[in-house]
Design a protein that fits this description.
The protein has two helices and six strands; from the N terminus they run αββαββββ. By secondary structure, it is α+β, with helices and mostly antiparallel strands. Strands 2-1-6-5-4-3 form a six-stranded mixed beta sheet, with helices on one face. The chain is globular, with a radius of gyration of 16 Å. The relative contact order is 0.19.
Length: about 150
Amino acid sequence: MNRRERAIATAELEMGLADFWHDVDTNWGRHAAEYYAPEGVYRSGRLNLVGREEIQKFYSWREDRGARVAVHAFSNFRAEFDGEGGATANWYMLLWAADGEAPLESRVLTRLSRATESFRWDEGEGRWLCTLRELTNLFKGGEQLNFS
């Protein structure tokens, strides 16, 4: 993969990540599972969701809890490609979130996490699908969700 191809593929992954978090923040993650491969895994703290159904169940649970304001921002996105249709990405997630209706009182950052992701190119869908998203909390504060 030359530099130009890597730049395009990196931009595709980053655009998919922005679209994913936009759906989560503005649409309750109603399409969240579509960004994952059918066997995709989402891990964060004690949360370990396997497969699109479990991932979507989590976002439905969030919506069913009631009003919530969340902003997921990310930075320092970097991707490496294996030349066989796979990619690994690393980035940092900054999360501000609290239950209630906007506008809410300003609060400290809820979480700063290091993300490690694996992707595979899906020829049928013509896009990258996440096979693993793992968030490692570096800093926590504010209100935390407790999904069981």
